[in-house]
Design a protein that fits this description.
Elements: H1 2-21, E1 24-28, E2 33-41, E3 45-49, E4 56-59, E5 63-67, E6 72-76, E7 79-83, E8 85-87, E9 93-96, E10 99-102, E11 106-109, E12 118-130, E13 137-148, E14 152-165, E15 168-183, E16 188-199, E17 205-219, E18 225-238, E19 243-259, E20 264-275, E21 280-293, E22 298-311, E23 315-328
Antiparallel strand pairs: 1-2, 1-5, 2-3, 2-11, 3-4, 6-7, 6-11, 8-9, 9-10, 12-13, 12-23, 13-14, 14-15, 15-16, 16-17, 17-18, 18-19, 19-20, 20-21, 21-22, 22-23
Signal peptide: 1-23
Pfam family, one: DUF481
Keywords: Signal
């Protein structure tokens, strides 16, 4: 009888050793480590399930390195590979095939596939203080949604601008911008985009363009980025009595970066277009801004816009500042 219980105890002990041997380990920046099974890694968090507790969610910025004991499908710079991950001595890095790999380039879920969609976005309301002699005020309401797989990235932005002065409506416009990127590699992509603007004040004026061209991501994965895009654009200007069309080459820079463990975000969107008519030298649209996270979802924003057109007869520039409150999702 004692031998039977001894055998049972030995079996249970061996099972425990075996389970521990295949466990994953996460090393934190404060020196702690957690052993268990890694369930997910996304742009914000790493999720691990220890044997002694429920799932633990750890902010990505608190992870120094980690390692896995089994080959699993990981997304590495948008390519899915079956790999074993080893811990690195460098902060925010791991070793994959003996190569130092930034953790920011990795995504993992138990159901990872090429067709997995990742969604993100924000809704924001802002008040503009425009830099002109009348010091007019504007109300802005805008939304921004991104849906992305390993090969495709959709982005839809919309904005309503409403301006009053002495109880008189001075501006009432609707803008919508859609872009579709086909991600050819870690850096190269092909962009198709459409833009629409409607002025509902007095004259019924609509303007829109369609654009197509290559883009290159200099650096950044997931939330951080620096993209350069060169497109050929076709513009339509639709008034009540006629429609005017023109073509233009355009260069666009999209920049976004997070600081202080994601609490502060800086961003910029710059575009300059060169129409194929001699009377207009260029049309530019620039946005600079920052967001400060009050909570994980709620943020304060400051935005600086410059819209500029230079032609043979005049040089016009519209500058505005905005303070806003938004929600991430």
């Amino acid at each position: 009888m004692p031998n039977r219980y001894s055998s049972l105890a030995l079996t249970l002990w061996l099972c425990g050793v075996s389970h521990h041997a295949i466990a994953d380990t996460v090393f934190l920046t404060n020196g702690d480590k957690i052993t268990g099974e890694i369930k997910a890694l996304d742009e914000q968090n790493l999720v691990i399930k220890p044997s002694y507790a429920p799932k633990i969610t750890i902010e990505r910025s608190a992870v120094r390195s980690f390692e896995t004991r089994e080959q699993q499908p990981w997304s590495i710079n948008r390519s899915i590979k079956e790999v074993t991950v080893q811990a690195s001595e460098l902060d925010s890095f791991v070793l994959i095939d003996d190569k130092q790999t930034p953790i920011s380039e990795l995504i993992y879920s138990e159901l990872l596939s090429d067709s997995d969609w990742h969604y993100s976005g924000s809704v924001e309301a802002a008040i503009d203080v425009t830099h002109n002699s009348k010091n007019t005020q504007k109300l802005h309401a805008k939304g921004d949604v991104t849906a992305e797989t390993l090969n495709w990235r959709h982005n839809l932005k919309s904005e309503v601008r409403y301006e009053t002065e002495d109880k008189t409506t001075k501006r009432n416009t609707l803008e919508a911008h859609y872009s579709l990127d086909y991600l050819i590699s870690d850096h190269w992509f092909l962009r198709q985009e459409d833009y629409y603007q409607e002025d509902k004040l007095n004259l019924d004026i609509r303007s829109y363009y369609a654009a197509l061209g290559p883009g290159y991501r200099f650096w950044g994965v997931n939330r951080d980025k620096l993209d350069f895009v060169l497109t050929y654009n076709h513009f339509w200007l639709d008034y009540q009595v006629f429609t005017y069309e023109l073509n233009a080459w355009a260069a666009t820079i999209n920049y976004k970066q997070y600081w202080f463990d994601g609490v502060l975000e800086t961003y910029a969107d710059l575009q300059i277009a060169f129409p194929d008519i001699p009377t207009i030298e260029y049309i530019s649209d620039s946005t600079f801004g920052l967001k400060y996270l009050l909570t994980q979802q709620i943020y304060l924003s400051f935005k600086y816009d410059i819209n500029e057109t230079k032609s043979a007869v005049q040089h016009s520039r519209d500058i505005s500042y905005s303070l806003g409150l938004g929600v991430n999702f």
